[in-house]
Design a protein that fits this description.
There is one protein chain. This protein is 13% helix and 48% strand. The protein is built from one helix and six strands, in the order E-E-H-E-E-E-E. A hairpin with a 2-residue loop joins strand 1 and strand 2. The longest helix has 16 residues. It is globular. The relative contact order is 0.23.
Length: 122
């Protein structure tokens, strides 16, 4: 898990089926020693894990990812220049009890990551 070590969820505001979030990245996390030394960038796999973990907080349940579609890494996330990410996660639980989400993250008002994914409760 990355929550509370790689990042901290500082704002979670849920209205209807939309969660507005603010995340503070830990710019001193050891992962940046290798990704990339002197020029840290949040790995795409970490962004996906953040989406999963935040969705677990929203749904108050452990989740398993069934699929991830339309992953778009639009702009590199540099935790040193600005360690705050804003996000919106829209979710729908379908008739098969799958949780379908669309997530959008931005840094300093600049879109950086988008994805669609489906989860099921463990």
């Amino acid at each position: 898990m990355l929550i509370n070590s790689f990042y901290t969820l500082t704002v979670l505001n849920i209205q209807s089926s939309t969660a507005n979030i603010t995340v503070q990245l830990n710019e001193k996390h050891a992962i940046y020693n290798g990704h990339f030394p002197g020029q840290p960038i949040v790995p795409g796999a970490c962004l996906m894990q953040m989406v999963k973990e935040i969705t677990e907080v929203i749904m108050e349940s452990k989740l398993q990812m069934l699929r991830a579609d339309e992953l778009k890494f639009i702009w590199p996330v540099n935790p040193v220049n600005d360690n705050i990410l804003q996000g919106i996660i829209e979710y729908v639980v379908d008739d098969k009890n799958q949780i379908n989400i669309v997530a959008n993250f931005s840094q300093n008002s600049k879109a950086c990551f988008k994805c669609k994914a489906a989860f099921i409760r463990n």
